[in-house]
Amino acid sequence: MRLMPQVRSHPLLTAREARTVARIVRVNHAGEFGAIRIYRAQIWVARRLFPDIAADLDEMLQHEIRHCAVFSAAMPARNSRPCRLIGLWSTGGAILGFVTALLGRQGIWTCTAAVEAAVHRHLDDQISFLVNRDRELHDAIRDIRVEELSHLNHAEARLAVPALHHRGLRGLVSFLTDLMIWLSTWGDSTRMARDLRRS
Question: What is the mean pLDDT of residues 1-16?
Fold first, then answer.
């Protein structure tokens, strides 16, 4: 996956659209950073308790590191910058990864499935928003979505019939992911989804 060249956003964007594009880059960068922290914490535990899944987690980690680099490279041309909540994404990701790994393999895959399902919904909204506004960013997110979907499918395939506490965990992780995305876009994620439904 190549980094995007430094190009300016579409010249016909309104000021609001340009702000939304900048926030998309910002929240995606923060989300990937949080995912890196989740996977690193899970790998640390898995290597000691579940070494059979450590290689799978490491492959996903490498994807997230590449994705984070793509969004970091996209920032300057879109007048974006790292999220003010990046520290919360970092700390929250590390705690989430560590706690879910201590719950066992099913905790790890439940966390992965919940995060990736929430992220996938938002990436779909972003791709629809960007298609006629920032084609390069659109194409980059479309390519990243393929790998994120593979993470979701991989986790789903390894989940047993969920126990009550796994269903609760999945709901909680999904809610927290949506909340962090909403906070990091100043509500733009909700407005994008609403505008797309209207259109």
Answer: 62
